[in-house]
């Protein structure tokens, strides 16, 4: 950031969050309400989020409203205590992995070289990632972020190796990188 005459440095944590409604009216891709924005408005609105900024966000998640029937259903959800235990275990795995590096606490903090050393994937995983990179037009930065997220998903699953399903899930979290994501 630069204020005239006063240089200011504002660090951005990888734990930061960003929220953006999908369009000016807020109903693009809504399951029940229709978007009333004129043609081209949604794409113009979404294009204000720059590619380099999107590259620096690990998880892109589109959240749609939950309808009443789903909220009121008797379906059992995973208990928060179980999720908490899984997260604590994954953090312990990462603490052990980076034990010799007091400046590192999480997979998101890995350097590109560490990603290459720690986030090994099978040849099938390499093929999947190559296809995703080509089809979605992903950047080199997105490649590293996908591998870091896949490693974290594997940690949450208690897996020593990054499996195809971990990689596929991580690729899915790059939804805003997809060309034409606004229709």
Give a brief outline of the structure:
The chain contains eight helices and two strands.
Explained architecture:
- The protein contains eight helices and two strands.
- The protein has 183 residues and is mainly α.
- It has a domain at 80-177.
- The model is unreliable at 8-12 (pLDDT under 50).
Work out the strand percent: under 5%
Order of helices and strands: EEHHHHHHHH
- General shape: globular
Amount of helix: 40-55%
Question: For the terminal residues, how far apart are their CA atoms?
Answer: 33 Å
Query: What structural category characterises the helix and strand content?
Result: mainly alpha
Spatial strand sequence of the major β-sheet: 1-2
Search tags:
single chain; 183 residues; mainly alpha; two-stranded antiparallel sheet; 8 helices; 44% helix
Describe the SSE topology.
Blueprint: E1 2-3, E2 6-7, H1 41-46, H2 51-55, H3 68-72, H4 80-97, H5 112-118, H6 123-136, H7 140-156, H8 164-172
Antiparallel strand pairs: 1-2
Helix pairs in contact: 6-8, 7-8
């Amino acid at each position: 950031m630069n204020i005239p005459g006063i240089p200011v440095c504002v660090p951005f944590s990888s734990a930061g969050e960003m929220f953006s409604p999908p369009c000016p009216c807020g109903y693009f891709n809504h399951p029940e309400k229709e978007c009333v924005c004129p043609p081209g408005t949604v794409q113009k609105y979404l294009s204000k989020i720059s590619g380099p900024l999107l590259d620096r966000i690990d998880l892109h998640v589109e959240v749609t409203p939950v309808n009443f029937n789903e909220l009121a259903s008797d379906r059992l959800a995973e208990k928060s205590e179980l999720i908490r235990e899984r997260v604590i275990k994954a953090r312990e795995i990462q603490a052990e992995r980076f034990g010799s590096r007091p400046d590192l606490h999480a997979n998101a903090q890995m350097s590109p070289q560490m990603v290459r050393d720690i986030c090994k994937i099978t040849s099938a995983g390499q093929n999947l990632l190559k296809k995703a990179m080509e089809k979605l037009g992903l950047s080199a930065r997105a490649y590293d972020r996908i591998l870091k997220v896949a490693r974290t998903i594997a940690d949450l699953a208690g897996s020593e190796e990054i499996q195809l399903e971990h990689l596929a899930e991580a690729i899915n979290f790059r939804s805003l990188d997809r060309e034409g994501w606004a229709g």
